[in-house]
Every structure is written in C-alpha cells, then in structure tokens.
C-alpha cells in the first residue's frame, strides 16, 4: 500500500489553488488544494434583484451608475440610493470517499464513491451606496458597490483510490478556510446625445482581498501504524499537519465601464453595458507542518511565489424592455456574457478549463398606480450557467476534485413602495448554492 503524492510542490500547485480559489463551487481535498469561492457579478439594487437582474434596458434609478451608466439621464432630480444585502452561501465540498475502485472495508474506507457536505455561511452588509446629480442633458453619479463578500470552511478526509492489495492509494486530508472581499468605488457620467439615445461611461476603482489557507494532514496512525494506518481517520491535530498552502492578495486596480440606452419605439427600450474585469497580483506560500521533514523547521517556507498576474472576469450585457401604456406593466429581458475563461488564460494553466457564461435574465413588474403610496410587485428568474473549474486530464483524483459543474436557476421576487420623493424596495433571489435578500431605498431631493 502506498500514500500517493501528486504535484504538491511545483508551480502548478500554487497556481492551481489560485484558479480554484476564484471559481470552484465544489470539492476541497487532495494534493492541489481546492478552495471554492463564489463570485457573482449581479447588479445592485433590490428592484433589479426582483426583476431577475434584467435591468440594463431599464436602468431608471441611481443604481444605473453601475448597472448601465447611460440610464442615469432618466433621473429628473438628484438621488441618493442605499442598499443592504444578506448573502447566504451553501457551498458544496468533498468530505471523503473513493475517487476510484471499491472500498477495502478497512478503517474508514467503507464507502463507495464520494461523500460531500456544504459549508454554510451568512453575511450581512451595505452592498451599494450612490448619489446622482442630473444637470441638463447629463448626469453624474458617485457610488460604492460590494462585488463579493464570501467566507468558506471545510474539513476533508483523504480520498482513497486503487483497488489491488498491494497498491491502495490515499490523498492527504485537508482543512481549508477562505475569505474573499471585493469592493468597487466609481464615478459614472451619462449624456443624452439624442432624444432617443443616451451614452454613459464609468471609471471603477477596485479593492480586492483574499486570504485562503489549505493545510494537509497525515492520517492519525500513518506511517507509524504501517499499512493498516493508511485507513485510519484524520483528526486534523496540529502535530499531524504536513503542509500549509496560503493564497493571498490585497490590491487595487482601475477598470472602465460603458453603456447605452436607446428608446427604440414607444414603450420599447434597448440597453447595453460593458464592464472591464480588474487585474490583481496574487501570492502563494507553501510552509512546512509539524509532521513532515522538509529540511526546515515547522512553519518554515518551502515555496513562495508573488506577483502572479490574475485577471477577474469582465461582463458584457444586452437587454430589451417593454413598458405597456400607462406604465403599469413592464417586461424586461437581459443577456450577459461573463468571460470567466480569462482567469485560466491569464494564469497560463494546463489541464484545466472553465467556460464563459451566457446568463439569461427575465423579469416583470406590475405597478398599482391607483394605490397610495404606489405599490409595485415583481417576479423574475435567471440562468447561471456552469462556470466551474474542471480538470481536462484523466487523473481520477483530480477529476474527483475538479468535476464539471452544473447550471443553476435562480428564482426572484420583489416588492416596491413609492412616495413622491422616496422609494423603498425589497428583493429576494433563491437558488441551491446561494440565496440573497436585498432592501434598498432611493431618496430624491
């Protein structure tokens, strides 16, 4: 029987962690640590959320500063907007089991296939702030947006493989944690170049930070207990730690956005937006644990790589909206193209791939104009296609940790109450891996 050790020290290991830390929504174990982080590029505002994110062709409040800066020209009075959001994450990861072969029946190796669990975490925060000031044919807005706010923790027993009496294989167990925070500050400006056409531009200053750790552990009775010890559990005690891999960045970058809004015909509008993805310099550090003999004391640095270029995805969106006469009923559709593959190409990784995503958003709103205050109800849905990092080779252990993902359908609903100068909106977005609740307010003065 043998403990398998597959690519833990070379550059592919650290870079693999960086890529996994940005995208993978499943799996965390093995010799190339995989830490799943969820990254969403959804637009701000509870109204947009209730409409399923189909907002680029509407963009008729201060959240347009990010969603589609051209829409700012629709504001008549200066506006201040604030949004609070609750993110509830339920992120799958691999607990243990078999990457290949049948269970030996020894120790904890009694389960065929893989076992999974979920890391559950809820975070609250102010997700959007803006102030917009219209003047003549133009409008200028300042804003702050929380692009990502995510935490994760997992413990994974080492996966088993093989199947012959002489060559059972086991990966090391892993304990992983991660904290991701992405905040953008921006200024947007819009101008009505024609009575039926408006253009907008924006500049965004991104602050991004990641602190992710994955520590690998030996089984409790291996190698001291001989071959039988290979099947013992991992208790994750400090004295059994073998290696710790830490991935980190804490940097800033500028990016651009642009949008248009075209009043195609009475009741019909077309809108589009492009947001450039920011770049960051990542670092990875591999240090020795207490159970290994690597020629350095526990905690000593084995490998440290800094200044690795990493490009986060950008977004291009196109939408259509229809407002029925009297503005009671609004229907909106939006297509977003998110270039997740730039992460792979920016790192130059082999044997991994991730697909760009074509998100489809659909929403509707009905306004009860005769009520006081005015009441609006909203329903929507959107498709979040699979954009999970996946292994393109044939290694069964890596395939178990980096499989193809799945598409997710998000269902949304919202409610709005509007007074003459004040509006408050509530939105919910429900899916298997992530739920969100938003409450936002807009005040015109």
Structural domain tally: 1
Number of beta strands:
20
The CATH class, by name, is Mainly Beta
Mean pLDDT: 85
* CATH homology superfamily: Outer membrane protein transport protein (OMPP1/FadL/TodX)
Count of helical regions:
5
Major sheet summary line: 14 strands, antiparallel, barrel
Helix content: under 10%
The value of Rg in angstroms is: 25 Å
- SSE topology string: HHHEEEEEEEEEEEEEHEEEEHEEE
End-to-end Cα distance: 74 Å
- Low-confidence stretches are 1-32
| Secondary structural class | mainly beta
Q: Which shape, going by the Cα principal axes?
A: elongated
Based on the coordinates given, report the CATH architecture: Beta Barrel
Q: What is the strand content?
A: over 45%
Q: What order do the strands of the largest sheet run in, or round the barrel if closed?
A: 1-2-3-6-7-8-9-12-13-15-16-18-19-20
CATH topology: Porin
Produce a short descriptive summary.
This protein has about 450 residues and is mainly β. The protein is about 10% helix and about 55% strand.
């Amino acid at each position: 029987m043998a403990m398998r050790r597959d690519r833990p020290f070379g550059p592919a290991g650290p870079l693999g962690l960086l890529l996994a830390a940005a995208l993978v929504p499943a799996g965390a174990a093995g010799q190339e640590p995989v830490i799943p982080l969820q990254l969403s590029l959804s637009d701000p505002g509870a109204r947009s959320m209730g409409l399923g994110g189909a907002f680029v062709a509407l963009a008729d409040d201060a959240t347009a500063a990010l969603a589609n800066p051209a829409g700012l020209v629709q504001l008549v009075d200066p506006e201040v907007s604030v949004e609070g959001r609750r993110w509830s994450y339920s992120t799958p990861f691999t607990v243990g089991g078999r990457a290949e072969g049948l269970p030996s029946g020894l120790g904890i190796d009694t389960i065929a296939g893989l076992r999974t669990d979920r890391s559950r975490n809820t975070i609250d925060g102010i997700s959007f702030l803006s102030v917009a000031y219209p003047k003549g044919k133009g409008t200028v807005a300042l804003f702050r947006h929380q692009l990502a706010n995510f935490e994760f923790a997992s413990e994974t027993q080492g996966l088993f493989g093989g199947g012959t009496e002489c060559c059972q294989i086991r990966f090391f167990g892993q304990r992983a944690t991660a904290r991701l925070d992405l905040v953008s500050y921006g200024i947007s400006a819009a101008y009505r170049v024609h009575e039926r056409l408006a253009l907008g531009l924006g500049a965004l200053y991104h602050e991004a930070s990641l602190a992710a750790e994955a520590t690998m552990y030996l089984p409790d009775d291996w190698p001291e207990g001989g071959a039988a010890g290979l099947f013992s559990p991992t208790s994750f005690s400090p004295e059994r730690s073998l290696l710790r891999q830490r991935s980190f960045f804490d940097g800033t970058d500028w990016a651009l956005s642009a949008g248009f809004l075209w009043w195609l015909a009475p009741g019909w509008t077309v809108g589009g937006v492009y947001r450039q993805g920011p770049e960051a310099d990542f670092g990875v550090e591999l240090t020795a644990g207490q159970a290994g003999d690597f020629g350095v004391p526990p905690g000593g640095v084995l490998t440290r790589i800094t200044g690795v270029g990493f490009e986060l995805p950008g977004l291009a969106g196109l939408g259509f909206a229809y407002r029925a006469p009297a503005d009671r009923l609004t229907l909106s559709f939006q297509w977003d193209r998110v270039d997740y593959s730039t992460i792979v190409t920016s790192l130059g990784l082999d044997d991994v791939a991730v697909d760009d995503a074509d998100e489809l958003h659909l929403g509707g709103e009905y306004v009860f104009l005769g009520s006081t205050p005015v009441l609006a109800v909203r329903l929507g849905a959107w498709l979040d296609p699979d954009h999970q990092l996946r292994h393109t080779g044939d290694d069964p252990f890596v395939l178990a940790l980096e499989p193809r993902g799945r598409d997710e359908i998000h269902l949304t609903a919202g409610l709005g109450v509007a007074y003459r100068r004040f509006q408050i909106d509530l939105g919910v977005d429900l899916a298997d891996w992530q739920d969100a609740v938003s409450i936002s307010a807009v005040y015109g003065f």
